[in-house]
Design brief:
The complex is a heterodimer of chains A (421) and B (814). In chain A, 67% of the residues lie in helices and 4% in strands. Chain A has 421 residues and is mostly helical. Chain A is globular, with a radius of gyration of 26 Å.
Chain lengths: 421, 814
Amino acid sequence: MIESKDVAAVRDQLARQVAHWGAAADDLADVTLLAAPAAWRSLERYLGTAIETTLAESVRGLRAQADVLRARLLAAVHERDLADLHRELLRFRRRYLAVEASLDFFGDAINTRTNEKLCAYLSACDFLARESMRPVLEPTGLRVPRVLTYVDKGLGASILKAGLRLWDQQFVSPVAVIKIVRHNLQRPTALIHETGHQVAHLTKWTAQLAAALSNGLSGNRSLADLWSGWASEIAADAFAFVHTGFASLSALHGVLAGEGSWVFRVEPLDPHPSGYVRILLVRAMCQRFFGAGPWDQLARAWIRMYPLENASPETARTFRASLDHLPKIVEIVLEREYAALGGHALVDLVDPARVKPEALLELERLAGPALYVSTDWVRRESLRLLALSGYRAATDTLHAPETLQRQHEWMTRLGELAKAA
Amino acid sequence: MQGQGSAEGSRSKPLSPFLDSYVSEAGPRAGGSTSRPFSESPFVSSYSADEEGGADPTSELYADFFAEIHDETFEDAVHQLVDEASSLVAAEPYAESETDDLAEATLREHFAPLSTLAEAYIAEAAEAFGNVDTSTLSEAVIHEVLEGVHMPQAAPSFERFLGALKKKLKKVVSNVAKVAKKGLSIATGAFLLKPLLSKLQPLVKPLLEKVLKFALDKVPEAYRPLARKLLDSFANKAKRAVGGIAAAAASAIPSAPQAGSTPPADAAPADAAVDPATAPTPSEATAPDLSQAQDELDMRIAEVMFVGDSTEHEVRIGASTAALAARDPHRDLDRARARFVRQVSEADGEDSVGPAVESFVPAILMAVRMGIKVIGRQKVVNLLGDLIGKLIGPLVGKQNGPALGKILADIGLKTVLQAEVDEADERAVVAEAIASTVEETVRRVAALPESILENPEALEAFAYEAFQASAAASFPASLVRPELREGDLGGAWVHLPRRGKRLYKKYGKVVDIVISPATASAVRGFDGSVLSSFLRDRLRIDASVPVRARVHLYEAIPRTRLARIALHEQVRGLGSAEAEVVSQIHPLTPEAASLLLGAPRMGRTLDEDTDPSNPSIGQRYYYLEVDEAPARPLGRESHLHVMVDVPKDEIRVCMFLSEVVAQRIVVGLKKGMPVGAIIADLRGALAGKGAAVASSPGKRLVRWLGGRDTHRGGALAGSVRAVARRALKRQVGALAVRWAWAHLASSLAVSTADFIAKAEGPEDGVRLVFSFRLPSGLAPLQAALKGGGALQADWPPRQSPKGSLVIRSGPEHD
């Protein structure tokens, strides 16, 4: 059968596009080119292997699809075959862009390890993140995922959870990827908030916490709905609190202390609690487990700087009702037992008493200067060192530069200990 | 598998150890001890010279000099150079090359800069000492002069070697000074250090050449006869010069077991009861003892110092080693094994396997240590060949071979390679398992005493039992009769790597275990170390809670070094030949196998002097892969050792506390814990080592300085004097440790601030060094050790002698 000129033209154009996109897929074959060799080498060996393997699999799948396109082009006889091919090609393009997005994401993340100092620091963050998840995941029989941290601009941290589908929807992320922002490099307690998300996801705690909050506040339906909708962020805040104590509140304050309109904002579908009550919730956690302390002063200042009179009447009513229920909310979040947590309460798995200021200072006294240099202390008490550094930064602003320098030193030491095999 | 023929005529149809075979009426198993390692020394027995005529003071001086320039740091540095060299040529394109030319060229190029740096360092040191009169030199001056010599910057392994060379030079100079002070001019010429040290420069290249040869497994087989020639030649010359030194020189040099050598006349009694069915304590080295490198160097240094010139011997050594060094001593056996494997893989039945066995057995006998006494006995060789041929016949051929191959591949090769295998691979693994069985059988038979070898009926019975045990060690449990099984872990042994030279065996199954705190406290490793200490100190894992781990199992074959296993294993935590990585590979003793795997027969007994850097064929090891462990072990493990320093007339006990333990003690001290509680904590942390010192101290736990340690690798085993010497060392070690604890108890209170200060530094760990002086000095002990007389009436002392304690940061060698 002789093809019409139009159909021939379509065939030619499709052939050109198949060739173009196939070649583009082939160009992605060597995933190690996504990041500098030194950056790859700076990763803990099996972290790097896990990432490389998944990305390579993703590209292999894409290239296999390109081969199918080529075969279909050769086999296309009728115009309807070309129409099918065109649809396949468009699907392939979308997949290519998704795979490229995944590769770029990981490549950019790895490439932030641009120099030795930053490599060590981020390696320390990888370690801290993993250690924070261990006490909750291991008793429940769950494997602790590897973590890749990277640094980027912005106000707050974020996480691509391990196990979530990547952009191409074919593969899951083999590791948790956590972004920490530059201004928090010196006080990375936000890292622990993000691992809280990972833990909540893996244990499926969020749903149970939401149900518990809904039931616990059932006397006020709108309040119950509001707070249960915030369960995922509350879980993460609670996780950061039990690991780092007041340091988590201080860091949270640094992120949330913005415009009043933002502090009072209540968005129906936003999983983030309003800043106003969020700060006071974590403060309530401090009060519950530590008694009186610098968190009270922080709360006083918070309330003073953001008077409820400046919020809408309805928002103010909701917030006042919330404040009355904060002790109950703290009990629900921290002290109630959940099947998702292996029948334990969060405080059973991670005891916040270990990060009470007195306990942190006692740790410093007992360990002495070795606390910041010993391969034993730095590794074993890395999370408490994070809590202590954050506590000092928040309460001893006069010596802030020394505190930051000291934090930098112990984190560098930790990173060197934790670095590539 | 199909069973064999009738039960009649066990001589023609021996019972197979494999399932579905008839039960035979094999001879009763002999009880008693397994064969003990024989000592082989190319040199005169250590103290026979003393027995015969008493020591000549000059000879004593030479022997002391030779002994005292020995340095463990230097030995470690050489080991690490060998491991580094091995890892450089481990992969393509070296691994599969028929010759080592490319590897040799690569290594010579690699070490050339080190040779230049070392020679330059010696030259500069010689210049620094100038024409100083050695009789006026003090330790402090020697130290100061050497500190002033520029230490070049280089790669870490090169720097380590140069650092060790500096220590060696320090020892050489200080011992030369000692000799000079005694007023003995035993060398030609005066004691001017510059010319003396300059003569050490030409010794660097031969040393590095030796390193290269070790790395390529090309240390000449005939090294020992060569050493004998060297000694004889030196002895003659030295005798002319100083009279009687040769005997003393020989007496100071230790023996070392070598593959293929004959046992000396004073070996273990020929009629000692043996049980070939019991796994013997592995004693045949997988590779030449690396300590030879330092011994040879020290001998040359001594020659330079005492005789004045080693050139003549350099030439002789060079010519002799060149002639011998072309061959890797394992190559012939490799070829024979490969041929056997090929023939067995292609065999189509029992009848075709006989000729393969007939040519393989003699090749094995040529290679094994005891083989030489068997190879001349044709009847023994024939019996062995015949028996083995009949036993392995049913395993090959079209009927059973494929099924067997599939089983072995599924639970061995596939698991290890994490990949599918083809039919050729399946045939190969069967043939390899058969080859291993044959080799192990022949080794066990070769170790039998003369009385058994001379008795055909007894020999057949023992050979059959040896085959049973070897088959059980080489084949998976599912194929072996239950009563013979080593364990039922579900795996099979695989030779690795699969391309190039085979370097070790790995068990196909990685076993998941949970290590309880009690188990961790009970499992012992090298030199009495306890698994819980390793987990705590190196992996920073809390062993007071159960620890999940995956156990990887390995077995040593010819050429195995632990560094090679560590390098080739692509397992988390391994993958490198660096010392800290290698140190994670532990001996799988029967106790460890029992506690960790519930399979005691998988383990192999460890000799107290087993040197991790010199494994024995058949020795088994394990590596624990633990998720929460760091990528590399951290710091050093807590340990203790006793040093009997005869030249300084003091006994020292060195306790090194790991960083974890040191910080724990700091917390205890700051909390005001009672001294007794702290000491109890420390004793617990060092429990394994302390117990080892008191029960079976190897040369690394109780070190005797001033008279080379003769207990290396089983020297003089079987000798009554050797037993007495061990008992004395054990007693001295146990007493010294007891004194140390007592001293610590009385001095800890006043040393608290010092301890805390040392622990707060950046270095890992804290060292406690106790020094004791006996009222009568160490001379009586030294004499007793040499077998020259009874100990004095005041031994052991009723009270602890006066001592001192010095606390230092870090794990530096004492």
